[in-house]
Design a protein that fits this description.
Blueprint: H1 9-12, H2 25-37, E1 43-46, H3 53-65, H4 69-72, E2 73-77, H5 84-96, E3 106-111, H6 118-130, E4 135-141, H7 149-152, E5 156-159, H8 165-179, E6 182-183, H9 185-195, H10 199-212, E7 215-216, H11 218-224, H12 230-241, H13 245-259, H14 263-272, H15 281-299, H16 304-319
Parallel strand pairs: 1-4, 1-5, 2-3, 3-4, 6-7
Helix pairs in contact: 2-3, 5-6, 9-10, 9-11, 12-13, 12-16, 13-16, 14-15, 14-16, 15-16
Amino acid sequence: MNESDLLPWTEKYRPRKLEEVTGQVEIIRTLRAFVKARNMPNMLFAGPPGVGKTTASIALAHELYGENIRGNFLELNASDERGIDVVRGKIKDFARSVSMGKADFKLIFLDEADALTPDAQHALRRTMELHSGITRFILSCNYSSKIIEPIQSRTAIFRFLKLNETDMKKTLESIAKSEGLKVDEEAYEAFYYISEGDMRKSINTMQGAAIHSKHLTKEMVFKISSRAEPKEVLEMMELSLSGKFLDARKKLDSLIINYGLSGEDILLQMYREIDSLKIDEKKKVQLVDRIGEYNFRLVEGANERIQIEALLAQLMLVGK
């Protein structure tokens, strides 16, 4: 058994070249231009989780430094080390040291930078200024609004988008071929549905499903991910809207028992199925309003079962 076989698939199949990164075509094209020019600005990668921010940064470092990556590339996760002492210590020491090999500058990748405290961000701003000649910074975050303006003005901001179904399927097909898996077409659609454009989530779900069988089906994907099939959630909502409250409540029982869904999971899937309901637009607006209200109640700590059943009762009233 190779050492790589023991890695989670998200690491085992992580691209090491920019051309292998899935999606984000325009951003990858720009990063490849930076590699060719052997020069780049400080950068801020913003976007939802699992869309390639970390992968693009590591692939960029591999193409810039090759075998000398260890001494020229520092990767830190700001959610673990987010105090001002880390910026003044580890980051500052690495930033002011001389680059190794033939590299023109070193690279510091700070993941989840929106978790840095405001004081740490102000200290980082000064470090970026002082050592801009020999060190470049890449900051990644989910919410760019949580990065202070002085840092935003010192970086080129790249906004990563959720992956589309075609790009995700292409990567999953490649992994399935390498692992000797047979994957149904509907299973690929299920991977995209449960991941919502998050590649990391879909790969982890595939690895979990592959432990049980080499043939992956739609039913298995939903079971592993603890998500209900869309048609079952839709059926529950339609029963309630048509006035069959007791039948809708039985369907809710089966969803909770079969899939182990939490109250918020059910609300999220109900929200996603509103567009599939064959009702007029005004009633859809009412449903969005009701789901938003009951989601707030759950967040505030109300009893899940009572609130979800109350929401089904509200759907029945809307249906009338």
